[in-house]
Amino acid sequence: MLTFIGAKMLIAPWYHMPTPASLAIVAVILTASVVASLIATHGKPRN
């Protein structure tokens, strides 16, 4: 997520990304991270 935001800041002088598109990308990255975490820990006992 930080990589996307950093890249967005770097290209800002040349390209303006619409706010809804940026928020959608952040939401997709966040959702994918949560799903990947749930899949990775599925079936493992909690300590």
Keywords:
single chain, 47 residues, mainly alpha, elongated
What this model shows, in words?
- This protein is an all-alpha fold and 47 residues long.
- The protein has 2 helices and no strands.
- The protein has helices at 2-11, 19-41.
- It is elongated, with a radius of gyration of 15 Å.
- The model has no long low-confidence stretch (mean pLDDT 93).
Short description, anyone?
Helices cover about 70% and strands about 0% of the residues. It is mainly alpha-helical.
C-alpha geometry = elongated
Number of strands: 0
Q: Biggest sheet: strands, sense, closure? A: none
Low-confidence stretches: none
Topology:
Layout: H1 2-11, H2 19-41
